[in-house]
Amino acid sequence: MAKSVLTGMVGHGFYNQNSATQMAAIDDVLPWLESACASVDLTESAAAIRLADFGCSEGRNSVAVMRHLAACLRQRTSAPIQTIHSDLPTNDYSELFALLRPEGRSVFDDPQVYSAVVGGSMYDRLLPSHSLHMAFTFNAIAFLSRRPLERLGDYIFPNGPSALSGVGSVSREERAAFADQARADLEGFMRARAAELLPGGKLLIEVFGAGETLRTCDGIYDALNDAILEIVEEGQIDRDAYARYYQPVYMRTLDELTAPVADRNAPLAGLFQLDRAETYEVAVPFVEEFRKTGDIGKYARDYTNFFRAFTEAVLRGSLSQHPRLDDLVQEIYARAERLVGTHPERYEFHYIAIAALLTRKADD
Question: How confident is the model at residue 1 (pLDDT cuts 50, 70, 90)?
Fold first, then answer.
């Protein structure tokens, strides 16, 4: 059984409030899912048409996607539809439940749409064999199932600093360890979904990643790294604590995402057919707003809250023995916000997404 190194995103509504950028990335591949809804085989016997989102977090984006797809499927079938929202057992599901049943009624406005929540690691089998018509994951596949190294001594992220920063480094051997773990995780995830999908079922994997020149990690982790280094230099944490802390996330290229099914000799080519794969840049809402208004304070705050929503849990876990943990964490993100506001050009952010749509092949 896979044991995640995360406990989930920041809860209590914080992730939902700061997930518009992630939804923008999803919007770009919604047409892919619409096409999947139009073409997926619905003739296989099943009590319901089942859709599963792996890595739903607090659910704002997950519910929005499910509402859209349920409406698309309803054009083809009157059969019951079940939406399945899955994340780690430690995830904060309270916002998700509230979104699914606002004012005590289903959000779907359709008496034949039912919802379920499943807690568990996306790298494990979580659902019965041949029970899903469609499965998808947005960004969650970037978060590794385990820490491949005990320490990453000179930077907090395995892909290394941006070219604009130049502060810190990650060796080729260190990066290779994370690339190997990311490959194993991706194959494990795809094998689990292959078991759960019906023949002809669709799988969409979308995740932030790396293009030819730009990477989603650039800027985000430079700001967080620089903020933590200020704390280290002041002696609030020591260098050893800095070396042991890193974000267990890996930014794949499109080639790495499609490698398990890229050709007939690929390890999972017998399970999936690759229908479509692309790299694309997402229009980031807080970046677009800054370009229009020039409000540097709001930009720095929104930018920092965006990456705080998915980095704080690991930071807290790594520094959990600190006697002033809450104050320390707050100070780190306040410093990151100050750095972004003072030097926005140093922490330039581009959201590069990669995505692949696959069809489950029939078993031999």
Answer: very low
Which domains are assigned to the chain? 14-360 (3.40.50.150)
- Our measurement of the distance from residue 37's CA atom to the centroid of its chain's CA atoms, rounded to an integer in Å, reads 22
C-beta separation of 192 from 123 below 8 A = yes
How is residue 360 written in tokens?
């489950």
Average pLDDT value over all residues in the chain: 92
Partner residues linked to 351 by β-bridges? 282
Q: How far is CA 171 from the centre of its chain?
A: 25
Higher-confidence position of 238 and 10: 238
Distances (CA, A) of 239 to 5, 192, 205, 233, 316: 22, 39, 37, 9, 17
Q: Which residues pair with 52 in a beta bridge?
A: 84, 135
CB distance 238 to 328 below 8 Å = no
Report the run of H or E that residue 157 belongs to, with start and end: none
275-305 pLDDT, tens digit each: 999 999 999 999 999 999 999 999 999 999 9
In this predicted model, what pLDDT tens digit does every residue of 139-179 receive, in sequence order?
Answer: 999 999 999 999 998 999 999 999 998 899 999 999 999 99
Contacts of 277 (CB under 8 A, 6+ apart): 254, 257, 258, 354, 355, 356, 357
| Contacts for 164 with CB less than 8 Å, ≥ 6 apart | 218, 219, 222, 345, 346, 347, 348
Rg (alpha carbons) of the chain, rounded to whole number: 21
SS3 at position 122? coil
Backbone dihedral angles phi then psi of residue 268, each to the nearest 5 degrees:
-115, 20
Residues 216 and 350: beta-carbon distance below 8 Å: yes
Q: pLDDT value at position 97? A: 93
Name the phi and psi angles at 265, rounded to 5.
-95, 0
Tokens 């057992």, located at residue: 89
What pLDDT does 3 receive? 43
- Look up residue 269 and give its two tokens: 């080519």
